[in-house]
From TrEMBL:
<dbReference type="InterPro" id="IPR005828">
    <property type="entry name" value="MFS_sugar_transport-like"/>
</dbReference>
<keyword id="KW-0812">Transmembrane</keyword>
<protein>
    <submittedName>
        <fullName>Sugar porter family MFS transporter</fullName>
    </submittedName>
</protein>
<dbReference type="InterPro" id="IPR036259">
    <property type="entry name" value="MFS_trans_sf"/>
</dbReference>
<comment type="similarity">
    <text>Belongs to the major facilitator superfamily. Sugar transporter (TC 2.A.1.1) family.</text>
</comment>
<dbReference type="InterPro" id="IPR003663">
    <property type="entry name" value="Sugar/inositol_transpt"/>
</dbReference>
<dbReference type="InterPro" id="IPR047984">
    <property type="entry name" value="XylE-like"/>
</dbReference>
<dbReference type="Pfam" id="PF00083">
    <property type="entry name" value="Sugar_tr"/>
</dbReference>
<feature type="transmembrane region" description="Helical">
    <location>
        <begin position="83"/>
        <end position="102"/>
    </location>
</feature>
<feature type="transmembrane region" description="Helical">
    <location>
        <begin position="304"/>
        <end position="323"/>
    </location>
</feature>
<feature type="domain" description="Major facilitator superfamily (MFS) profile">
    <location>
        <begin position="17"/>
        <end position="458"/>
    </location>
</feature>
<feature type="transmembrane region" description="Helical">
    <location>
        <begin position="370"/>
        <end position="393"/>
    </location>
</feature>
<keyword id="KW-0472">Membrane</keyword>
<dbReference type="InterPro" id="IPR050814">
    <property type="entry name" value="Myo-inositol_Transporter"/>
</dbReference>
<feature type="transmembrane region" description="Helical">
    <location>
        <begin position="436"/>
        <end position="454"/>
    </location>
</feature>
<feature type="transmembrane region" description="Helical">
    <location>
        <begin position="12"/>
        <end position="30"/>
    </location>
</feature>
<dbReference type="InterPro" id="IPR020846">
    <property type="entry name" value="MFS_dom"/>
</dbReference>
Length: 466
């Protein structure tokens, strides 16, 4: 009984540590999607057109690419937890700046700073969680990052709704001395401060401590996170052996014969790109506009958008339950197949849109089918690529280059995210069914890529990766 209680206490401690690190993922999701509720208010307040507002929305993604690129290198130099504190400070400062902008231009600059923090969090969470989680639980604990992201998205929608209701339903109405949309953007300072507080109180990664020559601290942390039954001397020797056989990580260490980079780095980059090129953020950034473009009312389109967030959370829980049972690669293949079918179905349904009395409409049965297909797409993404890519990026790279390689892969993800975000309005206006058919094509390609190039990492120690 005592051994079981000790095991549960140990596991609870590890869950607490990883959940604290995943608050960065919550901020990632929250700050990425909170702008949706404020877009109309910003446009009216500064009297700007669609081009300027599009830049304000998308520019954070470029900042995220910069943050992801530099976050891994800073984590190797300063440590995982100290770099988390820097990201938390950037979140808080950028939130206050976005809340109190003088012009749309300085608002855009604050959005870039917020993007840098988001990009850093996208790297730090998976790397830290992979390095402190016991191998038997690493997949499920690594899934905390994606769960935190989808919860952040849903909470931002809820907070925006509450603030809008408090302001009488109009985001430009005054509320406590400011306009409602300003409070929406400023509310992120609360979870940012919590992130800083937790990052200051969780243990440093044992692998970073060994890298920094602090073996006694590393031994203590390993005992905390891997339990009393682990031979700490053996674990320390394993980590030392890996560190001795590899040089200090720099971007040069990622170079290889395969088009300038190591093959494993290319696998991480392509996984990141496919995660975005299937068009998932079209659902979360543009779903309201999308459904209105085929004749669904504004109120109903907002309800559909919220329901998609709920389905996203459900799918994430399914992934957490399965990732350590059936493995990473099978989940990716299931997700790719499901996304390909659901996206192709949505493309077929949207092709039936017709204009009735000057307004677009989807006839029956294509209307309900399009809705079911879009939600099926979200579900298949959430239970596979949404979670598994982050788990893989945290564990697939050799120990010495992990943070740097993860930074490069995450940067590619943000650039791909930006590309999808800025092109969808033009592509959908040109041909919405063909746009969704293109996303379905990327889902098919992702299936073929995983089949050929992705190796299973389930149950393997990080020191075995390479």
């Amino acid at each position: 009984m005592a051994t079981r209680d000790t095991h549960q206490e140990h596991l609870g401690h590890v869950v607490f540590i990883t959940a604290a690190a995943a608050i960065g993922g919550f901020l990632f999701g929250y700050d990425s999607s909170v702008i949706n509720g404020a877009v109309v208010g910003i446009q009216r307040h500064f009297a700007v057109g669609p081009v300027e507002i599009g830049i304000v929305v998308a520019i954070a993604l470029l900042g995220s690419a910069v943050g992801a690129w530099t976050g891994g290198r800073l984590a190797d130099r300063w440590g995982r937890t100290r770099t988390m504190q820097v990201a938390a400070a950037l979140f808080a400062i950028s939130s206050i700046g976005q809340m109190l902008p003088f012009t749309v231009y300085d608002l855009a600059l604050w959005r870039v700073l917020a993007g840098v923090a988001i990009g850093m969090a996208s790297v730090l969470g998976p790397a830290y969680i992979a390095e402190v989680a016991p191998p038997a639980y690493r997949g499920r604990l690594g899934s905390f990052q994606q769960l935190a992201i989808v919860l952040g998205i849903a909470v931002s929608q809820l907070v925006n709704y509450v603030i809008a209701r408090l302001a009488g339903g109009d985001v430009n109405n005054p509320l406590w001395g400011l306009e409602a949309w300003q409070w929406m953007l400023g509310a992120c300072v609360v979870p940012a401060l919590l992130y800083w507080l937790f990052a200051a109180n969780i243990p440093e990664s044992p692998r970073y401590l060994v890298m920094a020559g602090r073996d006694q601290q590393a031994r203590k942390v390993l005992a905390e996170v891997e339990g009393a039954g682990v031979d700490l001397d053996v674990r320390l020797r394993e980590i030392h052996q890996v560190l001795r056989t590899e040089e200090k990580p720099t971007l040069r260490d990622l170079r290889g014969s395969a088009l300038g980079l190591l093959p494993i780095v290319w696998v991480g980059i392509i996984l990141s790109v496919f995660q975005q090129f299937v068009g998932i953020n079209v659902i979360f950034y543009y779903s309201s506009v999308l459904w209105q473009s085929v004749g669904i009312t504004q109120a109903n389109s907002l309800l559909i958008s919220f329901s998609s967030s709920v389905i996203n959370i459900i799918g994430t829980f399914i992934a957490i339950a399965l990732v350590d049972r059936i493995g990473r690669k099978p989940l990716l293949l299931i997700g790719s197949a499901g996304m390909a079918v659901s996206l192709a179905t949505a493309a077929w349904a949207f092709s039936a849109a017709e204009t009735v009395n000057g307004s677009p409409q989807l006839p029956s049965p294509q209307g309900p089918i399009a809705l079911m297909a879009a939600n099926a797409f979200v579900l298949f993404f959430a239970l596979s690529w949404g979670v598994v890519v982050w788990v893989l990026l945290g564990e697939m790279f050799p120990n010495r280059i992990r943070a740097a390689a993860l930074g490069v892969a995450a940067s590619a993800q943000w650039i791909a995210n930006w590309a999808i975000t800025v092109t969808f309005p033009v592509l959908s206006e040109w041909n919405l069914p063909l746009t969704y058919a293109m996303y379905a094509g990327f889902a098919v390609l992702s299936f073929l890529f995983v089949t050929r190039w992705v190796r299973e990492t389930k149950g393997r120690r990080l020191e075995e990766m390479g």
